[in-house]
Every structure is written in C-alpha cells, then in structure tokens.
Amino acid sequence: MIKILLFAGLAEQAGTQAIEIDMEQATTDEIKASLKEQYGLESIDTAMIAVNESYVKENTSVSSGDTVAIIPPVSGG
Fold first, then answer.
1. Burial status of residue 46 (CB atoms within 10 A of its CB: 0-12, 13-18, 19 or more)
2. Spatial distance between the Cα atoms of 29 and 61, rounded to a whole number of angstroms
3. What is one cellular component GO term in this UniProt entry?
4. CA–CA dist 27, 30 (Å, integer)
5. With contact defined as beta carbons under 8 Å apart, do 71 and 11 qualify?
6. Cα angle at 72 between 67 and 73, to 5 degrees?
7. Cα separation of 53 and 22, whole Å?
8. What is the pTM of this model?
9. Which domains does the chain have, with CATH numbers?
C-alpha cells in the first residue's frame, strides 16, 4: 500500500485528506495522473510532491509502505 496525503484545496476537492492505493510500485507522475482522473483534481499538476517527508522531483519511484504528500501552491498575504 502507498499512502497519499492531500492538503488544502486538493483535499477539499477529493473529499478526503488521505487515500491508500494498493500498489507495490508507482511513480509520482502515475499517482498524480490516477488521482487527477479518479477525483477530478485539475490543480494537481502544479502541486509539490514529498515522499516520506522529503520533497522529490517529477517521476520519482515510490514503493509500498511509502507516504506521498501532495501539496498545492499556497497564496495569500
């Protein structure tokens, strides 16, 4: 299982802050594409990704037991 954590507007759009996917391996790009399709998360393309509390680059490999945080851009003043 790979645990996905969603924050801010992404969590609101998905209706949940945490999702578990039953995969042994995936890339961060595959996870984002899957969530975009399943939950209609259009703004996921601009989100930052962290795996096990460390920011990663696009298309990073993720394994079962990892936690992936998807953090949308924050704006405000």
1. exposed
2. 9
3. molybdopterin adenylyltransferase complex
4. 5
5. no
6. 140
7. 20
8. 0.91
9. 2-71 (3.10.20.30)
Distance of CA 36 to the CA centre of its chain: 10
Which tens digits make up the pLDDT trace of 6-54?
A: 999 999 999 999 999 999 999 999 999 999 999 999 889 999 999 999 9
| Mean pLDDT calculated for residue range 51-68 | 97
29 φ, ψ (degrees, to nearest 5)? -65, -40
DSSP the chain: -EEEEE-HHHHHHHT-SEEEE--SEEEHHHHHHHHHHHH--GGGGG-EEEETTEE--TT-EEETT-EEEEE------
